[in-house]
Known about the structure:
It contains 14 helices and ten strands.
Amino acid sequence: MRFFLWALLGAIGMGVMCYGYASREQAAPEAAWAHGMIVVGPPPPAGELLPGGATPVLLRLVPGNPLTQGLLDGMAISVPDKVQSLRLQLQPKLVAVDFKGLGIDEKSLESGRLPSEQGGEVLAGPGTANVESIVSDNTTFKVVGRLKRDYGLFERCYLASVRDSGALMAPEASGVHSATLLQLPKDKLRDPKVVEQIEKVFPAGKYTRLMPQDRLDSRAFFTYLVGLVAFLLGGSGALISIYRGLAHRAMGTVTATEPAAEGYDADAPGRRPWPTWIAAPLLELERRPRLVWGMHLGYFGLVILGSFFAYRVPEIQTALLALVGEALSAQSGPLAAAAKAYATRNILHAAAVTFGVNFFLGTLLVITLPSFVVPGCGILMAILRSLMWGLLLAPTLSVLALMMIPHSGTLLLEGAGYILATIFAVVIPIRIFELSSQDSFLTRFRRAVLLNVQASFWVAIVLAVAALYEATEVIATMGQR
């Protein structure tokens, strides 16, 4: 009964997540500048026919907040070849445009007014900070209005009149970039032929493509987050109920003559207890319900905390996603191996590679084995991993929110595997300093290590289920693109 009640809570949470995503504010379907891309680089060759046409503009970067600048300085050291692209994504941009030519008038504004003919004034695009003025190259511009959400292509941009920006935006001025506005509906951005055409004219190595992020509004985000909390809480409760049920079955209804041996009375009525090496981890979980619940609540609580922080400071998520993208496209490494496995669209192959990475590298190498050297230190990796999951997977963007509806199952199951490994890593110092035990220090330590080895069987089962689910849902999602 407990299992079904927890599962019901998880199902309700999933429903709330779907509602949060569906209720998000969206640009009007007919909005001309809601979707598309800004391609930064030299003008396209003359005569090239581009989908959605092409509008040439000039832009220059505006200094970001201290956190953004600190992130970019750090990225300049770790991935210097990617820092320019990140600067274009993270820093606000001042763009010189012809308002009339782009069809921007008083009806385009969410608030304020259009810049006057005297110059020195700009419009703020969606997603920009609420500031009264911006400074670019010692020139101050007053922010006099803000564009509607329908102008998502100009996210994190400030628009100045091309006639009023003067020498600051001259093509030959230092720090000025040539760019091209591509006006494309959302469905065209998924069209393989359109993508191929854009890649041909604007190759990735030569151009930087900036696309609107379509961030969730605060009401939709927090509704979604409440649903995610309910899903993870209900899922954790359901899994813990399964552990308890298995522990009760493991004890059996026949008393063993020697608990550590297999010499049970075969003629006695009832179920025989399971072998010790399988039953011992389950019985340990049954003995420590507070530790089990505390680890689940702590782990997934940090995921939610990281998600909240990612919403408040979106630059961190953008930078981390760029690093993950770099690792996925690399020639070698665990993430690169996983990406190649998923590219085959073979579920069993992808699941096997995912399991290998998660179990051997993500669990044994960084949680279990270090805890044999420094008892319980694997919890530090669990804390770091859960926070990183929250920062990376926070449903701050529409595309991430949609992806996380099915991927939340992976988050729950994979997290459960890591939590199990962390629980038994923490049991090592608990067992070592257990005052009620009359055994020697070395005996307690040896038994705690043995328990971790035995528990790896159950960790492997949970991570195998997680890998199979993840491979199925990710490849199914890939097939819909």
